[in-house]
Amino acid sequence: MAAKTFPKQAKPTCSMFSMAASSAGPSNSNLVQHFINMGFHERLVTKAIIESGESNTDMILETILTYSVLEDSQQVDQNTCHGSSNQQQCVHDDELSSDYDDSLDDSEIDDFVCLPNGMSQSPNIVTICKFHFYAFAEIVKISGIDIYLVQENGNSLPDNENVLLSLASMGYAVEEVSEAMERCGPDASVVDLIEFITAAQMAKTEAVFFEEEKPKIFVNMELKRKQNQEALERNKKKGPLAEQDDVIRLPNPMIGFGVPSICSVVAYRTLPEAAIGPPFFYYENVALATKGDWETISRFLYEITPEFVDSKYFCAAARKRGYVHNLPINNRFPLLPLPPRTIHEAFPLTKKWWPEWDKRTKFNCLKTTYGSPKLTEMVRKAVEKCGDNPPDHVKKYVLEECRRWNLVWVGKNKVATLEPDEVEMILGFPRNHTRGGGLSRTDRFKSLGNSFQVDTVAYHLSVLKNIYPDGMNVLSLFSGIGGAEVALHKLRIPLKNVVSVELSEANRDIMKSWWQQTDQKGNLVHLADVQKLDPHKLDKLIKSVGGFDLIIGGSPCNNMAGSNRVNRDGLEGEQSSLFYDYFRILETVKIIMNRRN
DNA sequence: GTCAACATGATGGATGAA
DNA sequence: TTCATCCATCATGTTGAC
Question: In terms of domains, do A147 and A194 share one?
């Protein structure tokens, strides 16, 4: 039986996935569809509605979950799978190692960081699988734990019986192993056997999967594009913005549904039915995008109204961003301790040198590039010439440069650019998060400039803590330096399985290093290119981890950002068009997870 | 080839005066 | 309501030092 994505320790209520169901009316078919969209099997839904009646959706959900637990328990008994009754928490070792390798090209896999994961078939078995290969070599016993060492080149073979037992204990079916041994011959290595088995599994999956899934996903994309194009043309015909009824306007103040200091601006919202999870999703991009981009993003992401938030309400720097998500919005809480909210709180030593005519209390957006030494020299000379009270035109020039490049006063008449570690601190990352490992100063600024503000994102994600007390499976797209992961970690939400997709090797290294340094107990899988994440690979990943609880990411803003004077082509730009891959992957995951449940 | 420094501006929303 | 002005903006391409 396929895994459920809800941890049974914290059953979600209907309100967690908005009030869409109750607002959709009591129509039986709508109600059934609603729960099917949440990822439950139609048979269970129908049974639960008959038993609970149509009026109480929470009761229906309780009943469905009860049936799910019962069925899972039965399934577990049949499989003699020791451990949790929830298959999500009972992923076999082969699903966490060899299946990844089977499904993914070596070139795309950066590394498998394999850690004791507590999800092994047997509680005293740990698989260590490193560097995109899965050749089983030998078992060693360390502190009473059986460790399967996995190396790129298989070592000398045990005898056939041992091979059979070993592969079986790694989670392969005895029938599969026997068939592989028969087909590959007596001299076949373990590598050959595993390759044969996984190839056979893949062939079976492809035969079923591609015929059914691809057309549906393709049609959906095309339909969305067509609907969006029609809407854009309708707006064009309407003329001025004032006459267009579905234009998204930026709020002022930009506080979304609320920020820690101004809570509960919006107490609840109604999500469109198609947007209701699982999985939860969270998409981010620059608020000040080119015209019509947010309307398009919203149309693709189930007509959800973006939540626009300026991170100046969370830290000492502005960061105006739009977030489209299907998360609950009640009972959010901020990370503690609260980060410094003003420049002087963040950098107290600058107060001594700060001229009274520089009224800044917040930095502007922390970007990917910073002012040059020559610039700070020019500012110093300009101020020095005028003494303590420069004329207005000098003040204007200096303030323009200070605002533009986020300069701070570090001495008499002396300004400086922020250092990378200072930017790390403002954005909520651990000190030295991007330092070392071969990264230049320029690279650090670039990576940081493209990242989340951790406190802001953590505030939005904080609602997940009670829903997933035992941890989450996360699909992190355009991960960058791991802002989402750092936010979840700071919220103390365990990261069970993280599939992180990030093109930049430097960024992947930063996150890998953070993962190791923070002693994560879960599994991290790194992939490089979202465009190569096709339905087949997603299917295998979902099978391996038991489904994703959260799909999070902010696609490239290069072509949408105001700073870009060269290729500001909006969502259709070369990099920013990867938004459509975010949508494609989200849709694909939803479809696969619905089918598996 | 890599890295840092440097020069470069259009866009769109906010604001306020007419 | 219209218009001018102000302002901020997850950036890009070229150059030169090494």
Answer: yes
Burial (CB count <10 Å: 0-12, 13-18, 19+), residue A554: buried
Local structure of A220: helix, strand or coil: helix
A536 and A558 in a single domain? The answer is yes
Task: Please state, as a whole number, how many other Cβ atoms lie within 10 Å of the Cβ of residue A591.
Answer: 18
Nearest of A590, A539, A596, A10 to residue A273 by alpha carbon:
A590
| Count of structural domains within chain A | 4
Chain center to CA of A187: 44
Pairing of strands A320-325, A307-310: antiparallel
Convert the pLDDT of each residue in A364-422 to its tens digit: 999 898 888 888 888 888 888 887 788 888 888 888 889 889 999 999 989 998 988 89
pLDDT, tens digit, 9 for 90 and up, residues A482-523: 999 999 999 999 999 999 999 888 899 899 999 999 999 999
Find which nucleotide's C1' atom is closest to A446's CA. Answer: C10
Q: Which nucleotide is nearest to A250 (CA to C1')?
A: B13
Higher-pLDDT residue of A398 and A164 is A398
The pair of three-digit structure tokens given for residue A189, joined into one six-digit string: 């290595």
Distance CA A455 to C1' B12 in A: 28
Mean pLDDT of A468-472: 96
For residue A8, pLDDT over 50 is answered with no
Residue nearest to nucleotide B2 (CA to C1'): A440
Q: What is the DSSP string of A197-208?
A: HHHHHHHHHHHH
CA distance A124 to A476: 30
Among A173, A205, A237, the domain-final residue is: A205
Kindly indicate the confidence band of residue A130, based on its pLDDT and cuts at 50, 70 and 90.
very low
Same domain, yes or no, for A480 and A582? yes
